[in-house]
Amino acid sequence: MSASTYDAALARLLAHEGGYTNDAADPGGPTNFGITIYDYRKYVKPGASAADVRAMTVEEAKAIYRSKYWDAQRCDELPAGVDYAVFDYGVNSGIGRSGKVLRRVLGLPDNDWRTSDAVLAAFAKRDAKPVIVALCDERLRFLQSLKTWSVFGKGWGTRVAEVKSYALQLASGAAASTPAPGEARAGKGVVPLARGAQQGSAGAVIAAGAAAAQQAHQSGAASGIVAAIVAVAVITAVAAYAFWHWRQARQQHQPA
Fold first, then answer.
1. Can you say whether the dihedral through the CA atoms of 211, 213, 216, 217 is positive or negative?
2. Can you point out the beta strands (E) in 6-160?
3. Which domain holds residue 159?
């Protein structure tokens, strides 16, 4: 894929992703140019805040996309059209999923997500167009299976259709002349952990701690011991909440 086409593909991706968002329904959390706070902490600034994500420059986002998504999936070595479809899928749902789905479409074992030499060799006997169609169709089915489809589904459906159309044009050798993507509500197409489970875990810890503290108090335990029991319960609940968010972040790059 030529550098000029890459630039056009990136421009389309940025148009789909939009600017800063912090939607409570989106497992990506604070996100800017499609880069989540978890990725920003991982690649740019450990411990970054939502304000840091909001202040992210588009050049920072472009650098992350080139290195961690495009190059990581060896898109320069993929057939025209397939590269864009895989790139956009990886950004939206994680390179673990996009890479493994590409392998499935090619009839290869999906025990790895990486674009290996075997993946590249498989295209020697394959037409890129059916691969693009199968990849995008599976992507849509996956998104439709998510609990967040009711929130982001309309935008996701539009995005996948536009990606498929543009990727097929690239595979046909057509000039990059399709209209710019329409507005679509952003949101990471990853499997969200149930917020109720997160709240339930922390709440259960606090409830258990409160019960233990009450029992200790009723049994005549010293006030210091009661306070210690409450403190341990609060610390454990905070840890449970932090673990939930860590797992949410990990979903973005977890293999399918």
1. negative
2. 31-32, 35-36
3. 3-171
